[in-house]
Specification:
With 487 residues, the chain is α+β, with helices and mostly antiparallel strands. The protein folds into two domains: 346 residues, Methylamine Dehydrogenase, Chain H (7 Propeller), CATH 2.130.10.10; 96 residues, no CATH class. It is 15% helix and 29% strand. It has eight helices and 26 strands. The strands form six sheets. The chain has a five-stranded antiparallel β-sheet with strand order 1-25-24-23-22, with no helix packed on it. Strands 9, 10, 11, 12 and 13 form a five-stranded mixed β-sheet that branches. The N terminus is likely disordered.
Length: 487
């Protein structure tokens, strides 16, 4: 078995440390691809988005960026603080046509084209998930304040599924509290909140439209078009028959603890992410990916063990085309891939850092078939390519060759390699103004405007010409220089 550890050095430079470097470089953390088994890793592309930003990135297994979406939301304002993340994307998913759908928690759902142009927006208390049906309709996970049936006189935020047609008209809703009594006949009780402090219930985090599958011919509960849902706060997954609106199948009581993202596999089995509880007391302090036969209820595969990975609040596990499983330890911004035998083939650490230097979390990591993405890239030019005409800027502003090599790395999709080089070498090889300027471009390309703006100001203070920070030098500066906070 061949294992290749990615010890990536962007340039052939000896690592140098000087005492002033810590004042300029970013916090040193593991970032990007840190391990890959080149023989066993799936060739799918992977999409991820950080919880505190409004951007999403599509990368290869080797960590090369092939496309990114970014939307500044300059016309939008935060109207609800329930989600706690402001105007940032809770979840982003690419559609087969290359469009991207993103959810701003408790504010809206948007759809962008390949070039990040807004083509559709619906304002509602969206959260966690959406699904696009065969007719082009969009199902959105939403919620609203309702009387609390367990605490008279108080309110509870109950989940609601809203369907929009292709013109954006609301055509169907499914309200959880109107159907929760249906659990009685299926599991023998109606799930209730485990904590009085919970403000929302049952915290639906998944709405998956069942695909064509081998089970539907013998069991209409699994009919194509029915909707698979997941309640983190109720520890249950269930299927709603869309013809009757009734709950017709459930699984999970006594087994699941804070689950996320059940999906139906081509063989009809259901794969899900079983987080493990941290409330009211820890009952299982590790996470599992679990695959079940939905007819027998039998667990047929699982990955996870005591002392293993744990993401108590969010996460995803998705089966890849070659049979491996892509798992997101979302709370800690770390995702990895395992074989059916549980052998790890790949791992990646989110490079995005928050204000305190801590790694940003994410919600899900999604695999996309290589052939499909290659076709999209052939039809739509990738934004990551070498830009000509840099020589004039290098001469005008007396920029070093090392600085120009870092810029080239960023523009050609080697963002993580450029990041590593700046962290490992940075001011030890290039001066402070170039180090800050390179970080500014890197963070602008990543859609982290606050961090980019900070670095731009530091570069100017250190003597870098303000005119360098323009789309003329690099169009990856456009998110920075066009953002209202940078004016």
């Amino acid at each position: 078995m061949k294992r290749t550890s990615l010890l990536i050095g962007v340039f052939a430079l000896v690592h140098i440390t000087i005492c002033s470097q810590d004042k300029v470089k970013e916090t040193e953390v593991m970032l990007g691809v840190t391990f890959i088994d080149s023989e066993k890793v799936d060739d799918s592309y992977r999409l991820y988005s950080s919880r505190n930003l409004t951007t999403a990135h599509l990368i290869t297994p080797e960590g090369k960026y092939v496309h990114s979406w970014y939307y500044p939301h300059t016309e939008d304002i935060v109207t609800n603080d329930f989600g706690g993340f402001g105007m940032s994307w809770h979840y982003a998913e690419m559609l087969p046509n290359g469009n991207l759908v993103a959810i701003v928690k408790d504010e809206m759902i948007i759809e962008l084209d390949w070039n990040s142009n807004l083509i559709w927006k619906a304002k509602l208390r969206a959260h966690h998930d959406f699904a696009r049906g065969k007719r082009g309709n969009t199902y959105v996970d939403s919620r609203r304040d309702m009387p609390n049936p367990w605490q008279p006189g108080k309110t509870m935020v109950f989940d609601q599924i809203v369907e929009y047609d292709k013109k954006g008209k609301e055509v169907w809703t499914w309200n959880y509290e109107e159907h929760m009594d249906e659990f009685e006949a299926l599991i023998g009780y109606v799930p209730e909140p485990a904590l009085e402090s919970w403000r929302d219930y049952p915290h639906i985090n998944t709405i998956e439209i069942l695909p064509e599958n081998p089970l539907e011919q013998k069991d209409k509960r699994f009919r194509e078009g029915n909707i698979l849902m997941c309640g983190r706060h109720s520890d249950v997954i269930w299927i709603v028959d869309q013809q009757t609106d009734q709950i017709v199948w459930t699984w999970g009581p006594g087994v699941l603890e804070g689950p996320h993202m059940p999906t139906m596999l081509p063989n009809g089995n259901i794969l899900m992410y079983d987080n493990g509880h941290s409330y009211p007391a820890v009952s299982r302090d590790y996470t599992k990916a679990v695959e079940i036969d939905p007819i027998s209820g039998e667990i047929v595969w699982e990955y996870g063990h005591e002392g293993g990975f744990w993401s108590p609040a969010r996460g995803s596990a998705l089966r890849m085309a070659g049979g491996n499983t892509l798992i997101a330890t979302s709370d800690f911004g770390w995702f990895f891939e395992v074989t059916p035998a549980g052998e790890r083939t790949w791992e990646y650490y989110n490079p995005d850092l928050g204000s305190g230097g801590n790694r940003m979390g994410l919600y899900r990591t999604l695999p996309y078939d290589k052939g499909m993405v290659d076709d999209l890239l052939a039809q739509n030019r990738s934004e990551y390519f070498a830009r000509p005409g840099k020589e004039q800027f290098q001469q005008k502003y007396d920029l070093s060759d090392y600085f120009m090599q870092v810029i080239n790395r960023i523009e050609t999709g080697e963002l993580d390699q450029a990041y590593r080089w700046l962290n490992d070498n940075g001011i030890a090889v290039i001066d402070a103004k170039e180090t800050h300027a390179a970080y500014a471009l890197l963070f602008s390309a990543r859609g982290n405007i606050r961090r980019s703006s900070h670095r731009m100001n530091k570069a100017i203070e250190a003597g870098m010409a303000e005119a360098l920070f323009s789309s003329d030098f690099s169009d990856f500066f456009k998110p920075l220089v066009t953002h209202p906070s940078s004016k």
